[in-house]
Amino acid sequence: MSELRVRFAPSPTGYLHVGGARTALFNWLLARNRGGTFILRIEDTDVERSTKESVNAILEGMKWLGLEWDEGPFYQSDSFQLYKEHVQTMLDAGKAYKCCCTAAELEAKRNLAMQEGRKPKYDGTCRDRTDLPDSQPYVVRFRAPHTGVTSFDDLIKGTITFPNEELDDLIIQRTDGTPTYNFCVVVDDASMKITMVIRGDDHVNNTPRQIQLYEALGFPVPEFAHVPMILGSDKTRLSKRHGATSVIAYRDMGFLPEALLNYLVRLGWSNGDDEIFSRDEMIKKFDIRNVGRSASVFNTEKLLWLNAHYIKYGDPERLADLLLPHISKRKVTTLGGPDLMTVVKTLQERAQTLEEMAERAVFYYNAPENYDDAALAKFDNDHLMAVFEAVPRKLTSAAYDISGIDALFKEICTENGWKMGQVGQPIRIALSGGTQAPGIGEIVVTLGVEETVRRIQKAREFVAAKK
RNA sequence: GUCCCCUUCGUCUAGCCCGGCCCAGGACACCGCCCUUUCACGGCGGCGACACCGGUUCAAAUCCGGUAGGGGACGCCA
Length: 467
Known about the structure:
The chain is mainly alpha-helical. The chain is built from 19 helices and twelve strands.
């Protein structure tokens, strides 16, 4: 194990979204790549908005993606005592001070500053007050340096420098005695001995404040890597109106975890021209320095392509297991029908998602109730009747393999002077109800000769009734 | 408004640090052709970008300066 310690620290105010998942992935990847430790920490200091359901949803998403953590989950709500102690230390050392300004006053000053075009930062009213009344409610503020600069070498973005005068005395403890985010993060990352903070770049602006806190607290400052955001198709921050953002929603839409992982890792990161990465490959090749600096747009088309790829080359047995819930959802039972794994094999090259695969698999279990009229209309009834009579007559044995069936159909063609399309298509319609289906050989073998004959018979009666 | 960050095909990106191999490569999507009993898969080909303006240089996507556009942050949210 190396010294590398990284963490993913979501706040449980919603499900695990793709942006969070990618941040988690990058952390996980780097930990695995360097033999480091990946820690999961739940940032639930905002008791109001944090929910148990969200925690579960996040854990579920992480597990589905296979992003297993080495330590945790830790909950910030369990560490309130620790934060309090550190606040007191800061107060005792004069590195923090009590402030009696009310929220309303601050709000008013902020608005005024904005209006006048000034930076809306705390004006320092209580910074040097010595006459603070004991009885009044107060918050604790960090006594931040007002001169000089704070800078850090971001592993992704390079050196970033902030003039200290831009930073104000941030609140580290609220009126109700609870600590605030920026303070908790620092205390936690320090006490968990985090050596590298990999997070969304919406935190870049928090970083200088946090560095100042590390220094005030006497903690070593970790390295930072800020990963760019994921945008929607209109290049604004990805949100629900761009479609699904929840990792679990992608699972339910029939995406494979390895496909989403592969998509996410390539969003913002690259390894030359490589597109397909197994878990092991991405672990081996991942390098935080190859993460791009600019935001990227989430593109479902490419995700679909990757999903299709993983379905195509996936293990049929596993796919069958994963497919089952999507089949059941359609109120279809596989009982008494063909083996689902065999069905999967006929559909692997034809489905982009498990949902689509389930949709295409239905006909195997539910014989068609009606037929695609337009497709049927391409043949005259006499021809259809002839085909529907000729084929069952030739299907004598019960045991065929796919090439056996193909050979049989060729035979039928030669005997009757038909072209393949004149036989295959009507049979396909008889067996599946439509024209979008696997090869005839695959269907017949999967369905079995008995069921095949039954379905052709049924189609024959249907056509006969039309005459 | 202030500060911070970003800018290569429609999208994800390679190349940029260490100028010439780049009249910019790959992938998705799109279009066409081929394969084909349907739908797909697959194969081949096409379309298509260095935000802009200056500078440095024999030579710039690559270095420097500026402009524009986009994003983020500015909370007793995280």
